[in-house]
Task: structure prediction
Amino acid sequence: MSVFRSSRFARLEPYVPGEQPRERKYVKLNTNESPYPPSPAVTEAARAAAEGANLYCDPTALKLRQAAAAVYGVDPACVLPVNGSDEILNFAVMAFCDGRISMACPEISYGFYPVLADLHGIRLRQVPLRGDLTVDYRDYLSRNCTVFIANPNAPTGTVLGLSEIREIAASNPKNVVVIDEAYVDFGAESAIQLTKEFNNLLVTRTFSKSHSLAGARLGFGIGDAGLIADLTAIKDSTNPYNVNAMTQAAGIAAFGDNGYYMDNCRRVAETRDRAAEALKALGFSVTDSKANFLFVRHPDIAGGALYERLRERGILVRHFAVPAIEDYNRVTVGSPEQMETLIGAVREILAPNGRE
Result:
């Protein structure tokens, strides 16, 4: 840290992304990327847009908003495209939290929420999960603060139902409820239609997982037009051209090929369920994940040790050195072949001469 950093940020602990290896080729199951490439139409649209990269992109992303609105069944005024869903989460903290309005989120959830609270000096209440690592929706009723819930939750993959989300939104009429749907397309039910019922409900989405565009950085906020206007004011005050021309073009094309991506999500879900059964047969406990990852632990090997043994074999998974979940690893669902490689490596590690 330099001597020039503001004292406000002297103790800030940044979010640590999953490892992006450079020194060797790994079976990469640690950052929840799609194992399937973008559709050819998306690649071509981004390539064509790059030819005009000397000009600024549309700061309103009008065509992209219209494409999103058509797929999500909302008005274009109810959609804000952003540079990855992390950006809309940041905008939401800036717009809907302050010294008076605090935040609440699950204690075990997406690690970016507490980072944002620290960044903006917002008081945060992290609510423990239940013993089975699920979110109890009743913990968020009448919270009287801005609520952030990932659904499916990360890293556990468990879900809340729409009736539970409806109760949370209804019980917090004076505060915004943010439902982070980064993984919803792999088996959960979206709350987007509830945004027509509740003007305090903001749904966030990303194309990093379900639409094979992690490297393009595209996300969305969907909610009441008033909420979106608030968030747009923040966007225009920080980075008006936040979604570049190539990503806008890729996003429009991806919405046009939405069936391709939903088919891929179904393939991932099928692979996930097969892998979960194979791991259970090897003695693992596995949460009921509806995301594109599994959250697993084994009674005979520590989570950190398993992570290291897999890494030695060229397989990356995600381990969180957090006491409540240090025995677990989060495993991205890759291609069927990648998951077979993982299962084979785990079987070797758990063999009598391979255990720690």
